Amino acid sequence: MPAEKHGGLPAAIWMMICCLLPIMAIYALAAMGVVISPMILLLLMILCWLAMAGHMSDGGHVHEQEDQNGNQVPESEADDEGGEELVDRSGVFGRSHVRRFGSASVIEGDLLGEPEAAFQQVKERLAGQDVTPILQEDEYGQARLVLLPGSMEDGRPNRGPLIHWALFIATIATTTWAGALHQGINLLQEPGRFAIGLPYSLTLMLILGAHELGHYFAARAHGVKVTLPFFIPVPFALGTFGAFISMKSLPSDRRALFDVAVAGPLAGLFFAIPALWFGLGQSQIVEATGEPAVTMMHHGTEVGSSVLFAFIANLALGDAISQGHDILLHPLAFAGWLGLIVTALNLLPIGQLDGGHISDAMFGIRRSAAISTVALFALLFLGLFVWSGLLMWALIAFFLAGSKGIASQNDLVPLEAGRYSVGVASFVILFLILIPVPHAFYESLGIHCPYL
């Protein structure tokens, strides 16, 4: 998942620590045999996330002007001297209105010519000026040109590769530990049996690495400056909280934004689907006996829990899925299944998630903001009334990815049909992963249904 550049790595690490605190508390208390009320745990999680929210950046929004004493000056009192000169210098507006916010200028009005050509003209006229132009749509559907002083690029040099390699190796270690523990092997007691955790570890790292490198290479192809991937090791549960890259400059337009956003999920799926298919071939079907179903805590899942999962299971297992509806997943299949879930969560059209950026590129940042709000409330509703596990993801999505920054320098250039079709397909994949198979279709798909 590409992260906003404005917060930088320290803010990202702070936010991740706040996310980890409640989970670490669960494992620490469980290890001591302490049972706490779910309401107390929920309160702890909310307090941690509220603390994290206080350190979120503002996403690069234009601020009001300040006087020499640091006091804010209302917009109406801001000095607009030089505004007309900026309009003439831009040369892309007919009738226009100029506002000043401190040292930034906002020009709104009738755009002359096509957005792509107009924006190129702006950049040419501002060549050599220490100004960053942003072309977007205002709340009334008119063009808005924001002229920000200075460069929006993060001028700090990239950290050396040592930290990236250290986190990568640490995450291999923690995922190997987790993979072995899932098989009942404690590597602290039997370190020589580490190989049993490698199928899960290496497969999951391949999927996560492909996802982030998809973002990385797409960004480099469009001239967007990004960091190498940061992997997040955790010594419990799945062994990792995923990975992210940090964007250090803005995409030039919605096409570049789209390519960077969609490349990660597609690259991850390229490895997740074959891993799931091959791993399902080595997994065990639990025949219908009336006993309690297996759970994901024991690497088990129901065939019909996802339309895409059911389709892949049908290809990998054939008639065997007519004998039972639960599968004990092989470590390869478990890693592939996690790859599907990670892809689906990233494709949610919310804030700074990949799906949020895809939505920004497809519909424009203003319309995408409304879509993001609807999606977030839908996720919260599903977490409250359908599956409580989604509630945690809804809160994480709100605090970690819910902020909206400036999407790209030119937000007025629409996507062509090809990219738009890929965007639609990505959201279709999201629904195929998240939506369970309706029970009425179990028989036609050859899946054993325990409810009939």
Brief summary:
This protein has 452 residues and is of the alpha+beta class. The protein is built from 13 helices and twelve strands. The strands form four sheets. It has a four-stranded antiparallel beta sheet, with helices on one face. Strands 1-9-8 form a three-stranded mixed beta sheet, sandwiched between helices. The chain has a three-stranded antiparallel beta sheet with strand order 10-12-11, with no helix packed on it.
What does this structure look like?
The chain is an alpha+beta fold. The chain folds into two domains: 2-57 and 155-280 and 335-434, no CATH class; 81-149, Hypothetical Protein Ta0175, Chain: A, domain 2 (Alpha-Beta Complex), CATH 3.90.1070. The protein is built from 13 helices and twelve strands. The protein has helices at residues 8-31, 38-53, 83-90, 115-125, 161-182, 198-221, 254-280, 307-317, 331-347, 354-363, 365-385, 389-401, 417-434, and strands at residues 2-3, 65-66, 72-73, 93-101, 104-111, 131-137, 143-149, 230-233, 240-246, 284-286, 300-302, 326-328. It has a four-stranded antiparallel sheet with strand order 4-5-7-6, with helices on one face. The protein has a three-stranded mixed sheet with strand order 1-9-8, with helices on both faces. Strand 8 (230-233) and strand 9 form a beta hairpin. Helix 1 packs antiparallel against helix 2 (38-53), helix 7 (254-280) runs parallel beside helix 13 and helix 10 runs antiparallel to helix 13. The protein is globular and about 70 Å long.
